[in-house]
Design goal:
single chain; 656 residues; alpha/beta; TIM Barrel; Rossmann fold; FAD/NAD(P)-binding domain; 3 domains; eight-stranded parallel β-barrel; five-stranded parallel β-sheet; 22 helices; 27 strands; 32% helix; 18% strand
């Protein structure tokens, strides 16, 4: 695609006096890289990478303004002057590349990080009214009038600190079900005082925050408001209601731009749209954005599953928005804007919306990164990776994600690299993942890695498994073993009496399972959920027996929540805490993992085992005594996910 094809996306834009080089925005998102709520060098390097890559505007992550909404110390705070030096460091790092910087201010109210602490206790949550939060099960304390006044003033005070630290502007969070939304939503705001009742009463908190912030920062800095374009929840703000809120914000003289996005942290269905997974088509919220665009005149930023510059260009050219949030696309490839501008769209590493290592890391206590781009969040670790001093010959055995990444990185550093793959295609288990309903986009991981292999000149030998003999013939200096895993086919008592198959065989359409299936799920990942959906959509009766508390337990919450809803609508039965005991002709036996009571499931044609894989160590064992270096990456080291495989491929490739 030529640079001219992105003429709208890369046209300059002004929000009042603030000039942006293009229309691409890195929006506020949790980095989980803070220390005691303060900015760090890790964040500075992370944000600088996006600025260096050509983004038009960076909006830094949501920052709590008041002690009642701070949460654990890995979340950003700006409630005291202690925040100023750290923000100045990060903002200076961004400004060094000529990119403007805005900081978002918020209070979670009763959702999101509400109640979180460093010692594991639950802090009091506050909201407009005592309405139980579905997302985190917290019952909040209603804010008094005096506390509301404190909250309003805290926004102004935090904004003043951030402008002092060098920020070009402030964004007020009124989205994703946080405090301001809890006041705006008549389902949650049951107040009868001046902050409740009518629409304007419920809008009063947002209006007062806007006035407070503008008063404290003066007329020069930019001030924006991020709103929901609809929470996409049966229990939340609708698009029609969101349009009315946006229209009212549009009348506020203090506000310079409006930013809209779908979803809510407060509900399970809304939570699936906060960071929409690949089950939702790219750009799926376009109509919601357009409805707001039709009612407001201020500059509009639209954010929500906009993952490539082609789609972004269409949104800008079509008048859907003036700017587009492309946060996950920039986590996956910080250089995406520069590559698109330079007509190098084929070189872009495209986000596949797996959510595993970006927002998914937040729930696991890790920092934001990307399964495809492990350098994200690790800029300080990999910043000194250079061209190899001596060109070496490297053999990589296995063309799954880990092997592909190791080969590409080693070749990029200047080595001669040969990649052996026993199959006819590269991709490993990613080839299986993309075959399931709603997971086709996972194949983009393969496409992106194949492009890297081609770019850096890796020699690829398909249908050729690496053996000790073939490796010795090449005389490499080092071997990277990335042979992956073989299906773990555990012995099931009585299996000779009925059909027992591995889930991977079902994904690959290698077996006929009949009309009634029980899936024994011991991994709690995407496999059992995907197989269940695949079979249920084909008319099969499906029951999942989970060796855990819930199917999909190890998946990011938005991915899991949406998928469980799909399976429920398809009539799939899910039974938790089931320990597989055996089977007989047409019957599968389980033991409840805590009560120890026997559970028998009858009329079963096939038992499907979702037990994952076991490390393939055959080649590793044959390399005993090999004179060169031997490195293991991915599942052949220990079966895990594509994220660990690619990270280990990067690490080994960087060391060779």
């Amino acid at each position: 695609m030529s640079a001219g094809s992105f003429s709208n996306l890369f046209s300059p834009y002004e929000i009042r006096h603030l000039r942006l080089g293009n229309r691409i925005v890195s929006t506020a998102h949790g980095t989980y890289m803070l220390k005691d709520g303060l900015q760090t060098e890790q964040i500075a390097a992370y944000q600088a990478a996006r600025a260096r890559g050509g983004v038009g505007l960076i909006i830094m992550e949501a920052t709590s303004t008041h002690p009642s909404g701070i949460g654990a110390s890995r979340y950003a705070v700006a409630s005291t002057d202690a925040c100023i030096p750290g923000y100045r460091m990060v903002i200076d790092a961004i400004h060094a590349h000529g990119v403007p910087t805005i900081v978002q201010l918020y209070h979670p109210g009763s959702d999101d990080i509400a109640g979180t602490t460093d010692d594991g206790t639950v802090a009091p949550a506050y909201s407009s009214s005592p309405v139980l939060c579905e997302g985190n099960q917290l019952m909040p304390r209603p804010m008094s009038i005096s506390m509301i006044g404190e909250i309003v003033a805290s926004y102004g005070g935090a904004a003043r600190r951030l402008i002092e630290a060098g920020a070009d502007g402030i964004e007020i969070s009124a989205h994703h079900g946080h405090l301001v939304c809890q006041f705006l939503d008549h389902r949650i705001n049951l107040r009868t005082d001046e902050y409740g009742g009518s629409f304007l009463g419920r809008f009063r908190l947002l209006r007062e925050i806007v006035v407070s912030v503008r008063k404290m920062i003066g007329q020069h800095p930019i001030l924006g408001v991020r709103l929901t374009c609809g929470e996409r929840s049966s229990a939340g703000i609708t698009n029609e209601e969101a349009v009315e809120v946006a229209a009212e914000v549009d009348t506020l003289a203090e506000v310079d731009y409006i930013h809209v996005t779908p979803g809510s942290c407060a509900t399970f269905d809304g939570g699936s749209h906060v960071v929409a997974p690949m089950a939702f088509p790219a750009g799926y919220a376009k109509e919601d954005f357009q409805n707001i665009r039709n009612r407001v005149r201020k500059p509009l930023i639209a954010t929500g599953r906009i993952n490539d510059p082609v789609l972004a260009e269409k949104f800008i050219a079509g008048g859907v928005a003036d700017l587009v949030g492309m946060t996950r696309a920039l986590i996956c490839d910080p250089e995406m804007p520069a590559k698109a501008r330079a007509s190098r769209a084929d070189d872009i590493r495209y986000c596949i919306a797996c959510n595993q290592a970006c927002i998914g890391h937040g729930r696991k206590g890790g920092f934001v990164t990307c399964i495809q781009n492990p350098e994200s969040g690790r800029e300080l670790k990999f910043q000194f990776r250079q061209t190899a001093t001596h060109r070496r010959k490297i053999v990589v055995a296995g063309g799954g994600p880990g092997g592909m990444k190791a080969a590409a990185v080693a070749a990029k550093r200047g080595h001669s690299v040969i990649l052996f793959e026993s199959g006819r295609r590269l991709g490993g288990q990613a080839l299986l993942a993309q075959m399931l309903p709603g997971r086709a986009e996972f194949g983009g991981l393969i496409t992106n890695l194949e492009a890297e292999l081609k770019r850096y000149g890796v020699t690829i030998r398909l249908n050729q498994p690496a053996t000790r003999q073939s490796i010795d013939e090449e005389k490499p200096d080092a071997v990277v073993v990335a042979t992956g895993a073989q299906p773990y086919r555990r012995v099931v008592p009585g299996e000779e009496e009925m059909r027992v198959v591995h889930a991977w065989d079902v994904v690959g359409d290698k077996v006929d399972v009949g009309s009634s299936v029980v899936i024994a799920d011991a991994k709690l990942d995407w496999v059992a959920l995907g197989v269940a959906e695949k079979l249920a959509r084909s008319g099969c009766s499906v029951r999942i027996c989970v060796a855990g508390y819930v199917a999909g337990e190890n998946l990011p919450y938005g991915v899991k929540g949406h998928w469980l809803g799909v399976l429920h609508s398809l009539g799939v039965q899910i039974m938790p805490l089931m320990r597989l005991a055996g089977c007989a002709d047409g019957t599968v036996f389980f033991e409840h993992a805590t009560s120890h009571q026997a559970v028998s499931l009858d009329a079963v044609d096939t038992l499907v085992l979702s037990y994952g894989g076991i490390a393939d160590t055959e080649l590793e064992q044959t390399l005993s005594g090999f004179a060169g270096e031997v490195h293991l990456v991915g599942d052949c080291l220990a079966p895990r996910t594509a994220e660990e495989a690619i990270l280990e491929g990067l690490e080994v490739g960087s060391q060779l």
